[in-house]
């Protein structure tokens, strides 16, 4: 049994009419905007195609005409020819490409790629921080009939080799000498690799092309080979590979078609009702992740938005400088970005005097209530809220660079409810977005007219959500359906069939439910469920979030208990971060130091906290927070019995977090196995 949001016909009923429709399109269209009339729903072959999931009739969002990525770019250049498309800084001065120039530059780089030996259905791997060259390399690879494949900048040389091998890379584009050295170490192991390009600075090695050389090559090439490649592109073939974070084994290569990306971007744009030709975005989240690609590259293009590139230290603290300079109209962040803003705001608030604190409390109380009223369908605007919004919170938004921003979104992982409430109280409603690499980025989205504090929004119109095998409380596995569902994992048929069932539904592995209004909720992970020695199923994520809510000085809470007699918890204290590489330092954040001082056990570093065993007063404070969490437990088996403070916080650089800031549970369990065993001895 299953619960389905929005009716959907079985694949056998909706796909067959599309075959004839696809054949007609092939006969009528030459060039990239054509569909290969295949009958298979999945493929693991980079040279394969899949059937488009377009019903014969249905909502306008479901039956949008398919369009290729080159067609998408050309359309944007025709509609917004003189609108700024991309902006980047050179020697403290902003440089720009209009959409017309954007298209021409893509074509120039595509011609160079073909000249350097990029073969159809082979890839261009891109290893570097967000930049105009990243965008151009990605789209030029697709224009040339190849595939774009982003590589995480934190990857080791061996992990880079895996990505290059799986994607059959003919060309690798790197940002700088640091990333270049990784590729030079493995170059001899990549027989299909024909060219390496460094886009920032001058390559220190012979045989490595500079970006300037690439542009010169492209400008000297004729258009003929490129036009021939464009004429052979199909909308239902793979154009982009996105590598999963690899928390279990080697990363899988997710195959996304032209239609996957252009369709998902289009329905997201329509859901957000973006103002065409008027939006401004900042690109700073890693482009190797699908969320950044679909927003920064495709959503921006569909709306004719101007994209400004933040500097490479954005996530280490410089993002606020770009925000204040550019003042974006829409903003996408991962939970950690919002948590950092929250922590900084708390530090500032702690330094305020009595009168300022009293005024802030009054303003936040009325502003929070205003937004809670909107969530509950009560449209009212009190004089107190109007005053707080126009005088107090307007200044806060200006200080953050958010005074023009009309939509704030959090993606990649759940944002804690208390953080959402805080931002509501300062007149910054943050909306949740949920999706996967395998779903081209977005599947559910909250907007101000359809939002609450605990859901991940509603299913985006044109897409479908199903709850598989729901229990009596309505909870089951969340499954997705639509034109945004990926083609398959490269060369991994068994894993593809595990992910996509025979009716075309993508199984997310997330537990959740859908309420009567259509809001979707995540309550846990199937694979992350802890099964205690007594056979009790325990979802760790909600419990971990409760702990962090009760103990604001705790940065990460990690639940242990799989095959154990009881639950235990590992906690990390909030520490400062080394701005050079994002590694947590030993120094405690000032807010954490303040908490310890108030408890009567002052310390400035984690080493001091742990030196002679944590102070009993600190242990008692943590235990008190855990006790409050235990009061909410649904059974004794879900209560935390023991805990330990870890010597260092989690981070991407040290390996405990993946690229989207999700905890790698196996890594943590292995790294701290000794501490874990002591909790059970």
**Could you tell me the radius of gyration in angstroms?**
25 Å
The whole-number mean of residue pLDDT values reads 90
What is the makeup of the main sheet?
8 strands, mixed
Residue ranges: pLDDT <50 for 5 or more in a row?
A: 6-28
Q: CA-to-CA gap between the ends?
A: 43 Å
Provide the helix percentage: 25-40%
The total of beta strands comes to: 29
Distinct helical segment count: 23
Strand-pairing-aware structural class: alpha/beta
Strand ordering within the main sheet: 8-7-6-4-5-9-10-20
β-sheet strand percentage: 15-25%
Overall geometry comes to globular
Task: List key phrases describing it.
29 strands, alpha/beta, 38% helix
Question: Can you give a write-up of this model?
Answer:
The chain is an alpha/beta fold and 681 residues long. It has an eight-stranded mixed β-sheet with strand order 8-7-6-4-5-9-10-20, sandwiched between helices. Strands 1-18-19-21-22 form a five-stranded antiparallel β-sheet. Strand 27 and strand 28 form a beta hairpin. Helix 6 crosses helix 7, helix 10 (258-272) packs across helix 11 and helix 18 packs across helix 21 (616-630). The chain is globular, with a radius of gyration of 25 Å. The two termini are 43 Å apart. Residues 6-28 have low confidence and may be disordered.
